[in-house]
Amino acid sequence: MIAAPVVEHLTRRLAECPAEFLLEPRSAGTPGGQVDVEAVVADLLADLGLPGRLPAKAVGSWARAPAADRNLLRVTLVAAWLCHDPWLRSERRFGLPVLRWLAGGLRPLAGLVTAELFVTDADRREELARALLDALGVTPGGESRAQAADRLRALSSVERALVLRDTRAQAERARKLREQMASERAAQAAARYSSE
User: Fold this and answer.
1) In sequence order, what are the residues at sequence separation of 6 or more whose Cβ sits closer than 8 angstroms to the Cβ of residue 149?
2) Rounded to whole angstroms, what are the CA distances from 95 to 43, 79, 87, 88?
3) SS3 for 26?
4) Model pLDDT, residue 68
5) Among 7, 40, 120, 155, which is least packed by CB within 10 angstroms?
6) Cα–Cα dist 91/190, whole Å
7) How far apart are CA 187 and CA 81, in angstroms?
8) Burial tier of 167 (Cβ tally within 10 Å: 0-12, 13-18, 19+)
9) How open is the CA angle 114-118-122, to the nearest 5 degrees?
10) pLDDT digit string (tens) for 5-31?
């Protein structure tokens, strides 16, 4: 077994992603697209040693994707480029985990980050590379599991979105509580004034 690559190896690969992987994806929702996501993923999985046809559920997620999933399809193409790294192809044991990640693990990221940022932005490249290694259950070269988990958590767009959502919810609860308290104080003041 070959040792896991350092994260910088994978981020460099993302930075070198060919422009063709960012072209318009083809699906039922975007029939005029230029890139057949299903074919790209099928080729990748064959190179990772996964024999046969793609499972119908996975194929449907790419072939019949609505227009609203356009960014998800584009992120899938970028992730497929990343997964075609020689290290992954030499391992030949990652076909199923890669399929699971491409078919389901990218949706939360694609809902928050545009595909281009996984190529052009250093933090988003690192996030995608670390998300892949995490999905494979592999610790990046030169890091402990704890270091890798901490760094992924620090970079995570999904974690950040959850924190922002929770912060907004807490602020809204605090605002409502202040309004309620102000209303109660006004009612008490009015009651005191009317009794005088």
Assistant:
1) 134
2) 11, 14, 13, 9
3) strand
4) 87
5) 120
6) 76
7) 64
8) exposed
9) 125
10) 899 999 999 999 999 999 999 887 777
